[in-house]
Amino acid sequence: MRPTLLASVLLLASACDGSPTLDGGATADAAGLDGATSLDGGVPRDGGGRDADVGDGGAGADGEHPLVYLNDDVTARLRARIDGPAGARFVEIADIEHDAPGTIYAFEPWYAALLGQLTGDAGRCADAIAWTDAFVADEEARIASGERPEVSGDSYLYVGPTIGSLALVYDWCFDDVTAEQRARWIAYANQAVHNVWNHETATWGGASMPWSGWSVDNPANNYFYSFLRATMLLGLATEGENDRADEWLRIFRDDKIAGQLVPTFERDLVGGGSREGTGYGTALRELFELYVLWQESTGERIADLTGHTRASLPHLLHAIVPGGSHLVPVGDHARESTAALFDYHRHYLLLLAELERDDPRLSGVAYGFLREGPLPRMEQPFMAVYDFLHDDPEVASRPLSELAAAYHGTGTGQFYLRSSWETDATLLHVVGGPLTESHAHEDQGSFLLWHEGWLAYDTNVESRSGIRQEPEMHDLVRLVRGGSTMAQRRERSPSAALAWRDAGPFAWVAVDAAPVYDDAAVRSLRRDVVFIRPGAVVVVDRIDVASEITPVWQLQVPTTPTVTDASVVAGGLRVQRIAPAASAIASRVVDWAATDAEMSGGYRVELEARAGGPTTYVHVLSVDGAVTAQSARGALGVDLTLADGRAVSVDLAAMEVTLDGSTTALVEGLDEVPLYAP
Questions:
Q1: Closest to 321 measured CA to CA, from 413, 456, 501, 412
Q2: Which domain holds residue 616?
Q3: For range 171-186, the mean pLDDT
């Protein structure tokens, strides 16, 4: 069994002391769940096509296995798929691992157990059992010698895939696991899960081995989903044979899902996604997989207890750049800093598409991207099992163009705007919301711009670590006091999202980032962004700070910029400064690779205004010549001529946009942008 290696890749996480936790004290009733949804009477086993007698008086009371996932309907569906392309590839990979164990990186024992159930091949379960038992024996030896077992490493980050695989092998190969093995496996797994939820009194082999308890009460953190996986699968797989199984199921379903996750998600993650960003936030797929496993094991759709599940599907699709090669790089990207599209994102979308297959339009859009986009199947052999399990050929593909061209993740504070769903479209991203999780960046009020590659980006993508969070990395107005950059502070008031409107030909976002500084010297730090499709952007920054603070307007670009008194040109991007005047600005260009050993490229353009008091920056961004002329319109506006001949006026003093003679009033507030295109 190779859980540590697999988990280190799957969860994309590392221990980080000091992350905020959430209280999570809400009860099931507070989450809108009545008593019928609790586990007081035992977990239900009457759905998903499972035989009705399974679960009467306890799921395992009559000795029937499998209990997890492989009900009658799922088993029939997978057996029908096994000769298809995804099934054949999965079998081929399993055959290689059977013939030469260790050949397939991160191959898990439960993969073999799955094939054992579906094909009746006893050799598959023999492999799964041997690998699992050898791992448990190694862990027992460590414990007997007074060492901490591997499962406790990195604050129990790997407990989910470790105990989860053990539980699935136990369940799916039950008849071939000896009574002695079952007893040892359960004892080891029980202690691991007990220690997760009792960190201060954790023990191994009778010896006290407490740990930090990192994120055991934080449903917004990726560690939490690993803890849930171990707890749920151990409870489901051993119910009726393990005197602690019902305890684990109650902790999972009542305490952690109903009592903590649902109220947290309904309060903090409206609109889907993760406050950890598009890197560590991809660990949500581990949670979505639990939703699928629970539903097919019990018949209950816990996925529907929160709107976060459905909303996370469009949230991720909008976060993928035109052409599909990368995601918008929000937050830490520790092991692949460029945010390239990868198997984990495919897995995330496959699970959500399956969970939403009762909505063939939304599910079909996801499947359409997955089948026809740049990643039509898993690249890594160890991930091939998920194509087999979740790519449902019965759901017809639909085009991305059915979705609206804008999205707002209210809880994450992420705004996504694009000119279209074509591969050569322009994508604009703006940040304005909470800053809470440890893997989030100090990027409130920033923007990113893509057109056939990054034009303005988060320079973290050029870092070797992928975890450069400081304001210097972002396209925002940086505040400097006493020669040092002021930090945006976590667990303070979120940035104020003042306006969000998509009016078709143009869209408008307004954010005040001052609250995240929690400093009376920062009175206002407002940014208005008006995106005129397909490739013009007006950015107006209004800053009011105390005399000791200097505002610095920043632009991060991947190519060497040319900076003049009033413009910046970098590749296909031209930035024209309308205000302040050149005499009031000091400009600099920082070559990241030349000044920071951790950086492989990128440039930061700095436009520094005078210190203190009110300052206004007005800039026009033109993508590939989209703007042919621009001029000031009062102190807070511009008049533009576009390459397609349209005339545009943006006037934030009058709060209006005029496009070809038609004027639209700008009224502050957050519109509810529709999911689908008109």
A1: 456
A2: 404-670
A3: 98
